[in-house]
Amino acid sequence: MTSNLTDIRKSVSNSTEPQSACLQIAEYTIFTAIFLISVAGNILVCLVILKTPRMRTTRNYLLVNLAVSDLTMSLLCIPFDVALKITSPLWPLGSIMCNILWPAMTLVTNCSAATLAAISLDRYRAVVHPWKPRFTSFQTSVIIVVTWSVSFMLVLPYALVLKIQNGYCAEDWPHPVAVKAYTVGLFIFQYALPLLIITFAYTMVGRKLRHQAARIARNRYASGVLVVGYSSMKSNCQQNAMSEVYSVSSPSVARVFEFKNTFSDPAKRELVPLKFEKTPCDKKEMKRLERNTKIMKMLVMVVLLYAICLLPNQVVWLWYEFGNLQNWPHFSKLLTFGSIMVYINSCVNPLLYAGMNEDFRKGFCRILRCRWKPPFMTRV
């Protein structure tokens, strides 16, 4: 949450822009649905990982950290946000909550961004540098502690300037430049820098996966060729000569090719595979490639949704500080939309895990004692 959010909310509460009862009901309904989905989904994510021994990996522990951030956002921020909409412009929560509520929202958002960056670096290390050892449990714990510590340090100035003023929790910055600098700093460390790190890491991972796929294709082609027949009417000696040219012995794989006489020039005739058998090495490498590709698809979707969901709120912060957002007639609607998008980000990840990962689907169903079986396999 932005450093100037309290001022924005105060401006909105004093605005004369009418808001229909239907719009308020729609807002509260959306908040309720997001709250229920986020709380249930993120609790299930934590339970599935912690109760499934083979899912207790460094990447999944980072996913637990991400789920805890989203769960904190839902439990701490959504109920109080709805209460403040009802009591606005008064602040009924006391001075302690004034220094906790909005900073906590900023804290968990920072932590989510840092965790997504850490997950991308973990994938980069595992795919691009597979010879390096994976993070240990201790190293993963250190990463999680660092994400929360750095997020807390970033939000500390915001918490210190919040005070009860005229019955509302508002900010009291020592200089107007300070709030602008803090807003820009939050945009960089909460949004721009994490997305830059993630983009670099996943770009390198994508290139590595493409190279692996190309290498597997080359290995398949070069692992063994056996020509057994041609459609052209050549002499036996010509066939034997061609067979020697195009055949490579291999104890583990055999490919059968048919020579197609589609051109009058023998040099343009092509070999077409009729049969191909994968080696155990091929199968193992293909399985690893498919697994990494599926993981990448899921994580990229998580990051894309984070970028999309937080973008409106980032626009609000920057527009308010460096533009004239407060004079825009649809100011409050944009603010509400930005808040809803931030909350949506806290509930979409469990839905993605369930939709794109078989282990999470099975774990969710096992905990909920559901007998539904997924129609396809997506293993992580």
Automatic annotation (TrEMBL):
<dbReference type="GO" id="GO:0004930">
    <property type="term" value="F:G protein-coupled receptor activity"/>
</dbReference>
<dbReference type="Pfam" id="PF00001">
    <property type="entry name" value="7tm_1"/>
</dbReference>
<feature type="transmembrane region" description="Helical">
    <location>
        <begin position="28"/>
        <end position="50"/>
    </location>
</feature>
<feature type="transmembrane region" description="Helical">
    <location>
        <begin position="62"/>
        <end position="80"/>
    </location>
</feature>
<keyword id="KW-0472">Membrane</keyword>
<protein>
    <recommendedName>
        <fullName>G-protein coupled receptors family 1 profile domain-containing protein</fullName>
    </recommendedName>
</protein>
<feature type="transmembrane region" description="Helical">
    <location>
        <begin position="298"/>
        <end position="320"/>
    </location>
</feature>
<keyword id="KW-1133">Transmembrane helix</keyword>
<feature type="transmembrane region" description="Helical">
    <location>
        <begin position="100"/>
        <end position="121"/>
    </location>
</feature>
<keyword id="KW-0807">Transducer</keyword>
<dbReference type="InterPro" id="IPR000276">
    <property type="entry name" value="GPCR_Rhodpsn"/>
</dbReference>
<comment type="similarity">
    <text>Belongs to the G-protein coupled receptor 1 family.</text>
</comment>
<feature type="domain" description="G-protein coupled receptors family 1 profile">
    <location>
        <begin position="41"/>
        <end position="353"/>
    </location>
</feature>
<keyword id="KW-0297">G-protein coupled receptor</keyword>
<keyword id="KW-0812">Transmembrane</keyword>
<feature type="transmembrane region" description="Helical">
    <location>
        <begin position="181"/>
        <end position="205"/>
    </location>
</feature>
<dbReference type="InterPro" id="IPR017452">
    <property type="entry name" value="GPCR_Rhodpsn_7TM"/>
</dbReference>
<keyword id="KW-0675">Receptor</keyword>
<dbReference type="GO" id="GO:0005886">
    <property type="term" value="C:plasma membrane"/>
</dbReference>
<feature type="transmembrane region" description="Helical">
    <location>
        <begin position="332"/>
        <end position="352"/>
    </location>
</feature>
<feature type="transmembrane region" description="Helical">
    <location>
        <begin position="142"/>
        <end position="161"/>
    </location>
</feature>
